[in-house]
Specification:
Number of helices: 10
Organism: Vagococcus proximus
Number of domains: 3
Keywords: Glycosidase, Hydrolase
CATH topology of the largest domain: TIM Barrel
CATH architecture of the largest domain: Alpha-Beta Barrel
Radius of gyration: 25 Å
Helix content: 10-25%
InterPro entries: B-gal_1-like (IPR026283), BetaGal1-like_ABD1 (IPR048912), BetaGal_gal-bd (IPR048913), Galactose-bd-like_sf (IPR008979), GH (IPR017853), Gly_Hdrlase_35_cat (IPR031330), Glycoside_Hdrlase_35 (IPR001944)
Protein name: Beta-galactosidase
Family: Belongs to the glycosyl hydrolase 35 family.
Number of strands: 31
Shape: globular
Largest sheet: 8 strands, parallel, barrel
């Protein structure tokens, strides 16, 4: 197959409209990829698009992962087998409401790091990553008999910077390691963004991202092409058919018929990529965080996105409305009935064991001692929690305050919660009573996700944990033990030790299932924390909503006994866990 970017997209010389949908393989259990791609074709799409998140594939510097959720090669093989064209976006930065926009947190171990720039430490890290990634993608290009049509150089760079030499460096690295197919950029559909983020002068295709007003956005895109004497196909690389959601905010919905009519306007003039077609789930600690200028708000575990397919893979009213428009505007496109997943309430189960974090702290991790608090990055930790511990003399009353800390802070004196601070509360004074000669002060800090977009991408706030220190009166307290709580060893928890009422605790439940089923864990009686099923990190929950569930795909269950472990930070005692055949939300 020969793919060309001319006045139109040409496949074997034939003008072809690309009707694409975004499917993030890393947000969907691999066993569900096939049904998702089947439904993508059923709606009328001929192409699948996906980002490639650097932090998933190189979670630690020099240690690469291409298995399970990270098996991009298996995803490409499956898409080819199902006769779909593929668009890949291996740009170092992806945004995607993903932790740090896909950039690995270990970059921040370099105090001079300047991401998305010509800084040598950054470019060398990209080079090392591409030396592993791009050769794996090489066989799937159309030039090698595959179906990958295009690769992205950078993602919405025009909303961040205007360094064309940097963009050319990234493009050159893609080519250095084997990219032979056309390259593209994607930016907001207005002049300044396209000018800053595009490389039309180097024959890199510019595409636009928008959710409405196709005519105005395509007009700006056409003008950008003409500025460089190009006649190029018009493509909306991200048609925002829905939106993401943040903790503590209402779920955002978009009218299906209004969405479909915007799709019609795009198809009349060019090609489209639905962002998203199937959003999936932010498993683990991978949710991103929104830059709200005055504060940051982390995204929820669900990445449903109000897309044509729900988080759990169910076609929506929006799916059928868009399918109808595709049939009307592109009558030669094949559409058909989608597959519908099945869900079951598997029951309620009693929690059998519980243990408090302070009781097993030294079992989970070895302390690192330092005279002042270290950040997560200085500790070589990317995700999760970090506990800071010191001793304070007494008896006496005093007040403490923490400075420059990300993101959520809990103060404990002798295992008793004294305060929880978040966002603008961080730094407020906390009165404490020190009743004994020797008192243990624990500061538990949660990394809720690094910003994935906006000016704070390069902010010191991206470094998590305590960046400043803890003050008593006007002086900083010294002599700290640091406990890394990335919680990747949850299977090793000793539940025979003490449970302390009101403390952050682990709860263990055995769930017996005669047959694996898709289901939803009901989190309405929980406070805040994370859940593991048979060692797999299902994601975060939080009572502030808007969601009160965690989606549990059937592929994560075993026949018979399964182990569910909950880490609850708010002191709520969890006595049982319940499941539902539908998602539940905060009232």
């Amino acid at each position: 197959m020969k793919f060309e970017v001319n006045k139109e997209f040409l496949i074997d010389g034939k003008p072809t409209k690309l009707i694409s949908g975004a499917v993030h393989y890393f947000r969907i259990i691999p066993e569900k990829w096939r049904d998702t791609l089947y439904n993508l074709k059923a709606m009328g799409c001929n192409t699948v698009e996906t980002y490639i998140p650097w932090n998933v594939h190189e979670p630690q510097k020099g240690k690469f992962n291409f298995e399970g959720l990270a098996d991009i090669e298996a995803f490409c093989k499956l898409a080819q087998e199902m006769e779909l064209f593929i668009i890949l976006r291996p740009s170092p930065y992806i945004c995607a409401e993903w932790e740090f926009g896909g950039l690995p947190a270990w970059l921040l171990e370099d105090p001079k790091m300047r991401i998305r720039s010509q800084y040598n430490g950054y470019i060398q890290a990209v080079d090392d990553y591409y030396s592993e990634l791009i050769p794996r993608l090489f066989p799937y290009q159309t030039t090698q008999g595959g179906s990958v049509l295009m690769m992205q150089v950078e993602n919405e760079y025009g909303s961040f910077g205007n360094d064309k030499d940097y963009l050319k460096l990234i493009a050159s690295l893609l080519k250095k390691y084997g990219a032979e197919i056309p390259l593209f950029t994607s930016d907001g559909g207005w002049e300044a963004a396209l000018d800053s983020g595009g490389l039309a002068e180097d024959s890199v295709l510019a595409t636009a991202n928008f959710g409405s007003d196709a005519n105005s956005n395509f007009k700006a895109l056409e003008a950008y092409h003409m500025k460089y004497g190009k006649e190029a196909p018009l493509m909306c690389m991200e048609f925002w058919d829905g939106w993401f959601n943040n903790w503590g905010e209402e779920i955002i919905k978009r009218d299906p018929n209004e969405t479909a009519e915007e799709v019609r306007e795009i198809l009349k003039r060019g090609s489209i990529n639905f962002y998203m077609f199937h959003g999936g789930t932010n498993f683990g600690f991978y949710n991103g965080c929104s830059d709200q200028f005055t504060h940051s708000t982390p995204q929820i575990t669900s990445y449903d996105y109000d897309a044509p397919l729900t988080e759990w893979g169910m076609p929506t009213e929006k799916f059928y409305a868009i399918q109808k428009v595709i049939e009307e505007e592109c009558p030669n496109v094949e559409t058909f009935e989608p597959k519908l997943p099945v869900f079951k309430n598997i029951g309620c189960f009693q929690v059998k064991e519980k243990v408090s974090l302070p009781s097993i702290l030294t079992d989970l991790t070895s302390p690192v001692k330092n005279d002042y608090p270290l950040t997560m990055e200085e500790m070589g930790q990317s995700f999760g929690y970090i506990m800071y511990r010191t001793e304070l003399t007494g008896p006496r009353k005093t007040a403490l305050k923490v400075t420059e800390t990300g993101d959520r802070v809990q103060f404990f004196v002798n295992n008793e919660l004294k305060a929880t601070q978040y966002q603008n509360e961080v730094g407020e004074e906390v009165p404490v009573d020190l009743p004994f000669e020797r008192n243990i002060l624990d500061i538990l800090v949660e990394n809720q996700g690094r910003n994935n977009y906006g000016p704070t991408l390069i902010s010191p706030q991206q470094r998590k944990g305590i960046r400043g220190g803890i003050r008593e009166d006007i002086h900083y307290i010294s002599g700290w033990e640091h406990y890394n709580l990335s919680l990747d060893n949850s299977k090793e928890i000793d539940f025979s030790k003490e449970w302390i009422e009101g403390s952050p605790s682990f709860y263990r439940c055995e769930v017996k299932v005669p047959k694996p089923e898709n289901t939803f864990l009901d989190c309405r009686n929980f406070g805040k924390g994370v859940v593991y099923l048979n060692g797999f990190h299902l994601g975060r929950y939080w009572s502030k909503g808007p969601t009160s569930y965690l989606f549990v795909p059937k592929e994560l269950w075993r026949n018979g006994v399964n182990t569910l472990i909950i880490f609850e930070t708010e002191g709520n005692e969890i006595e049982n866990v319940s499941f539902s055949d539908h998602p539940v939300y905060v009232d």
